Amino acid sequence: MKRVLLLAALLMPAAMSAALAQPSPSEIIANDDKNGDKAIDRAEWAASPAPIPFPDEADTNKDGKIDQAELEALFAKGPPGN
Question: Domain 22-82's class?
Fold first, then answer.
């Protein structure tokens, strides 16, 4: 019984870490691009599980959506506030 509890205690942080892992830009596009244009617009962003509001600064070409390259550049900057 003690071994089972120890194993569970050791595996829990790994499971929590995996659950909290941030998807990659390509995964975000694949999961949240509902209209198939290979980008995330404001409505798609709002409907997604994104933890922040639509990042206007990521939309570098000002077309109202964030494509994979723009999303990769946003991720490279790190979390908001850095």
Answer: mainly alpha
